[in-house]
Amino acid sequence: MVDLTRRDRSRINKLISTLNVMILLFGYEFCTVICSAVIGNVGNTQIVTIPFRAISLCISIIAFLFNVKEKLFLNNPGKAFLILWGLIICRFIYDYYVSYGEVDPRVLNKYWLFMICLTIVPLLSIFKSWRSIDFNKLLLYSFLLIGIAVVVSFFSNTAFQTASEERIDANAALNTISSGHMGLSGIILSIFVVKKPYKVGLYQYLALPVFVISCLILLRSGSRGPLLSSLGIIVYCLIFGTKNTVRSLFTIVGLYCVWLIFSDDIVQIINDISPILKQRMFDRTDQLSDRSVFYEYAWNSFCESPIWGAHFAVKTSVKNIMYPHNIFLEVLMQLGIIGLTIYSYTLISALKSVNCTLRRRTPGRWVSILFLQMFFMLIVSGSMTLEPKYSILMGLVLIQEYCNVDVVEYRVVGIRREVISQNKK
């Protein structure tokens, strides 16, 4: 009877731990898309987002409590990442509570929500429950969530069904950038579901239509960031994802030659699918002039205090703040050289883990690709403080860096032993 109870507890723990990560990665897109399709786009998106955030936080806390007796995962890069977040929060408190910067309290509450409830608590829950996460099922369930989200978005939002000259939001809670990255995530997960080492039935049959619809959403959203992220992932995988460097270089040169020869045809195809994306990507008059102001402000803040940093965010109005749309400038602005050193150490450790999983072709490499997606996103848009998914994926990648090959392939990824033995033969 005791053994049965322990077995049941282990199953429940694995279910909750896996569900926690799945919701943290793609629950927001799924929830907002489904609610938008059912009740329509509402002006106040908090009607949907606040209950979802509360449920997600509760699941993270439950996952932490189920594994409260487990040792907290903390290798050196993990410790450095938590220290970085601690310093960011200290900067936030100093700027807006000690030096009394005039900012709308609602804006400050939003940052508290994202930093503590949506990032720190979920990250600690993953560091506690990492041994119970079934990454095999996590891939399939995540694909199911993102697949439903992209399909429902495509058919419920008629703007995605035609070539538009305007940027498209999936719904009121998913802007054009988030919509494009939802499409890119659908592409990534579709590819890895097809490449599973054993049959997964219906999922693999659904992969092709999800892939096609995800491509359309990626392009027709009209945002450059997701497309640039996809190109960054391809180039990174070709350079660092293989042991054959010479072949990778030839592949890159070959792709560049294809671009030189067929560039006009490729641009025309993009124009036929998404005229707005073609205009924003290849029209020389459409530049990043608006963001250059944020870049300049962040750089001047760093120069004002190069050691410790000077400001938490860019001040855009009397009571509002904005991020600089570049993660390196953001860290330099907030924490100076000290913060950049800590972040660089964490990032290099994470990228080493990514390279290891890509070269060894471990089943968990889809997590590494998603991490690259978020990393390239934060280079051209967004903020680490307002993108919890980046920190969650950073934590998962650092866990892979900590584990040896056997743990990555079995305990962490959760793949069956017989499949591994067949692959090694």
Number of strands: 2
Class inferred from helices and paired strands: mainly alpha
H and E order: HHHHHHHHHHHEEHHHHH
How much β-strand is present in the residues?
under 5%
Please tell me the overall pLDDT: 86
What is the count of helical runs? 16
What would you report as the Rg, rounded to the nearest angstrom? 22 Å
Distance from N terminus to C terminus (CA atoms, Å) equals 39 Å
Poorly predicted runs: 404-425
Summarize the topology.
Layout: H1 2-39, H2 46-66, H3 76-98, H4 105-129, H5 135-156, H6 176-194, H7 202-220, H8 224-240, H9 245-273, H10 275-282, H11 289-304, E1 314-315, E2 321-322, H12 327-360, H13 365-380, H14 388-402, H15 405-412, H16 417-424
Antiparallel strand pairs: 1-2
Helix pairs in contact: 1-2, 1-4, 1-5, 2-4, 3-12, 4-14, 5-6, 5-7, 6-7, 6-8, 6-13, 8-9, 8-13, 9-10, 11-12, 12-13, 12-14, 13-14
What does this structure look like?
There is one protein chain. This protein has about 425 residues and is mostly helical. The chain has helices spanning about 1-40, 45-65, 75-100, 105-130, 135-155, 175-195, 200-220, 225-240, 245-275, 275-280, 290-305, 325-360, 365-380, 390-400, 405-410, 415-425, and strands at about 315, 320. It has a two-stranded antiparallel ribbon. Helix 1 (about 1-40) runs antiparallel to helix 2 (about 45-65), helix 6 (about 175-195) packs parallel to helix 8 (about 225-240) and helix 13 (about 365-380) packs across helix 14. It starts with a helix and ends with a helix.
